[in-house]
Amino acid sequence: MSDLVFTGANELPAFPDADRSPSYGAGGPRPTWGDEPADGDDFGDDTYYDDDYDELDDGELDDLPKRRGCRNALIALAIIVVVALAASWFGWSWAQGKIDPAGEPGEEVLVEIPEGTSTGGIGEVLAEAGVISDAGIWNWYTKLNDPGSIQAGSYVMRVNSSFDEAIDDLAKNPLPPNSRMVTVPPGLTQAQIAARLADPENGVPGFTPENVTAALADPASRSTVIPAEQTSLEGTLYPETYTVLEEGATEAAVIRQMVDQFDQVATEVRLNERAAALGLTPYEVVVVASMVERESGTDADNAKVARVIYNRLANDEPLGIDATSCYEKNEIPCRLTEAELNDNTPYDTRTQVGLPPTPIASPGKAAIEAALAPADGPWLWYVLDADKDDRSSYFTDNYDDFLAAKARCQEAGLC
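RESULT FIELD:
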């Protein structure tokens, strides 16, 4: 590249005579190339004109466009490389989003892998069930990362799983034949759970409301967090998707399985130790968690709702949670009359100070964690935020501010 700068037409032509060289010192005129010499200067016609460029031979002149062409080719090649690298990066990012999608895995689903299905065919089954998002990328990925032998049968998997999570689920033994999945979502009451288990379509075939009720009354099905004076299992039937054998399953066994799952989660979150640190019993924390589960519109608000409950308890103020009255009415959700909102029962948290006597629903793990680790803040009121469409709430410690937010909520038809 340096040849293009310092040789050929870019060189200064040599002066014919040393004594005719112009002076470039202070006060000396600097000649202009190709112009006539000033009066009195004897530079001659052979000094600063285009004739000197004729001294370049044909080979040097012919070489100039070739060098420019080489430079242009290098620039074009660099552009192509940059574009190719950018395309590769975006392509890999897109594929990575398929391999490991954003967010946590969702609800559990039962996936049936037919006998003789190829690995690529399994990808199509998983994509149809929503477990993975792209069967084509799955086929490519499993060729590079051998998942091993996958048995035919039924598997409990989660929607929006990563490829590795799906492969891990498929590495487990399939469920026994004639298995059925029963989903108990968070926020259901004991009565609603009993109805779900006995439902002919969503429950377990052969289960009856009478047998489920009897199983709920069985002392062997009690969690260790329930006080001795309480007879209800409310709040301790853990919301989860359960796999039940259609043949040989009993109502008592399923209820026991749900309570055991609750106790396992209680151990995982260290319910006993963390409740004591809050100055509460484990059962009281479950009561708070059940209200959080019913009141919070989004998991992001759980810890704030818990803080409002604790702030009101600390101030000896009624909690003002209408969901407790709906629970007593056995109608969730419900519309309450003024009489029902002020009936002075133990579940009337508009007039009664303190916690209701029992949980009002089965809380999930997120709600239990929020009850154990409330957010820091002075809030005393909350209402659905009319400016948002994600069911989140507006929190405040100013009553007038709350009333204004409530008015906006009512105007939007959310309250």
